[in-house]
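Weekly sync, protein design subgroup
Attendees: M.S., D.O., the rotation student, P.L. (late)

Item 1: inverse folding check
M.S. brought a backbone from last month's batch and wanted to see whether the design step gives back something sensible before we order anything. D.O. pointed out we never logged the input encoding, so this time it goes straight into the notes. Structure tokens as presented (407 positions):
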């Protein structure tokens, strides 16, 4: 008789390399989620400007976009755990700088933008290297289970991080940055302790063609190209999360704690949907299901845009997070099934660029639109635009719409 889900999970957590990886990734994501609340609230408190909120996303996106392809090649050529470890230590030092400036009272908005740019550069290298590291820390034959559990840890961090970040900021602006520095430092130490069962040896020299091999791979696969580009444009238009400080303070009349609750709401929905998908997998018409999930994402964004109730806003954001998880599971599964191990870093970098661009440029777009039209019209137009993109992509990528199974 085969082992049940709890027994298989026990095997994973009893496997030291995976346990260290799991704790390190969870701690790193926890810090990022705290940063999303602390930086957004502090910038808005200093400037009261929707435009400056949008600039936070742009400041993080630019270094990420410039470094992503080099980062993917680094992940395929060098020791992935060391790459991740160096990034996390750099992030810890940057968070310590923000804490110091906040406690001392000399931190300015340009300095915050500079710190956010460092975060963007670090995550450009950390994300593809960490994603490519997972197959090396998972026991043989348990990669799918390990991926599901690792994804669950992200959702837990996305729930707890914003809530703690809001509470910590209410104590003092420097407190959340101090917590971030501690968790990133611990994550770096845990990554350094990992001993891989199956380290991946570098095979390709650092040529220009090898650097952009991931782009060619994605372009030659229309279903993958359609999947990740749909995510890019849908979330680009529906990136209302950049406006959460405005909604929390000016529309819903709450404080930093309310911002933390709003930030965590999508992760609650995402975590619940992760549990559902782990039990009831999508077996048929997966391409159509992905488009339907994006449409629901757009509708939930529109409801959030019009809401003046904290309860309804939290509910809409939870539905938004659940719908985004369905789309994400299908996208990740398609990419994993089609990518050889030797290219995981570079293809993961392309996927990361699309996903990261959708969130960070989406924040920039939302901030600019809110500065011109107001927060509510900006969020509403974003939700309706997301629905329009999903309908257009169904016409542009019929092969993706007709994908039947993830096999």
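Designed sequence read out in the meeting:
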């Amino acid at each position: 008789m085969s082992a049940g889900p709890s027994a298989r999970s026990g095997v994973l957590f009893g496997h030291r390399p995976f346990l260290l990886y799991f704790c390190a990734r969870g701690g790193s994501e926890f810090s990022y989620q705290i940063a999303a609340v602390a930086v957004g609230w502090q910038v808005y408190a200093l400037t009261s400007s929707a435009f400056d909120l949008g600039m936070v996303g742009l400041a993080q996106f630019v270094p990420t976009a410039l470094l992503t392809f080099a980062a993917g090649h680094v992940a395929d050529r060098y020791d992935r755990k060391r790459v991740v470890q160096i990034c996390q230590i750099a992030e810890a030092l940057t968070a310590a700088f923000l804490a110091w400036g906040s406690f001392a009272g000399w931190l300015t908005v340009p300095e915050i933008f500079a710190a956010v740019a460092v975060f963007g550069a670090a995550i450009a290298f950390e994300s593809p290297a960490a994603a490519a590291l997972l197959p090396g820390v998972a026991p043989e034959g348990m990669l799918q289970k390990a991926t599901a559990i690792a994804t669950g840890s992200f959702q837990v961090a996305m729930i707890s991080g914003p809530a703690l970040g809001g509470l910590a900021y209410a104590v003092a602006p420097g407190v959340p940055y101090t917590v971030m520095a501690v968790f990133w430092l611990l994550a770096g130490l845990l990554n350094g302790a990992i001993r891989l069962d199956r380290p991946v040896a570098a095979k390709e020299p650092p040529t220009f063609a090898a650097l952009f091999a991931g782009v060619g791979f994605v372009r030659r696969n229309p279903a993958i190209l359609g999947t990740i580009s749909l995510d890019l444009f849908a979330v680009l238009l529906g990136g209302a999360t950049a406006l959460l400080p405005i909604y929390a303070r000016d529309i819903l009349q709450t404080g930093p704690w309310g911002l933390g609750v709003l930030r965590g709401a999508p992760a609650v929905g995402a975590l619940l949907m992760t549990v559902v998908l782990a039990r009831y997998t999508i077996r048929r018409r997966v391409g159509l299901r992905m488009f339907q999930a994006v449409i629901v994402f757009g509708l939930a964004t529109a409801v959030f845009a019009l809401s003046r109730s904290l309860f309804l806003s939290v509910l809409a954001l939870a539905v938004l997070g659940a719908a985004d998880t369905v789309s994400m599971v299908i996208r990740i599964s398609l990419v994993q099934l089609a990518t050889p191990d030797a290219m995981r870093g570079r293809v993961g970098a392309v996927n990361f660029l699309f996903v990261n661009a959708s969130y960070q440029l989406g924040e920039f777009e939302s901030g600019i639109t809110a500065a011109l039209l107001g927060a509510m019209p900006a969020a509403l137009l974003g939700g309706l635009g997301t629905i329009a993109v999903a309908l257009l992509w169904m016409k542009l990528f019929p092969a993706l719409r007709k994908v039947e199974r993830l096999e």
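Discussion: Confidence is low (pLDDT under 50) at residues 1-8. The CA atoms of residues 69 and 245 lie 32 Å apart.
Action: P.L. to compare against the previous round before Friday.
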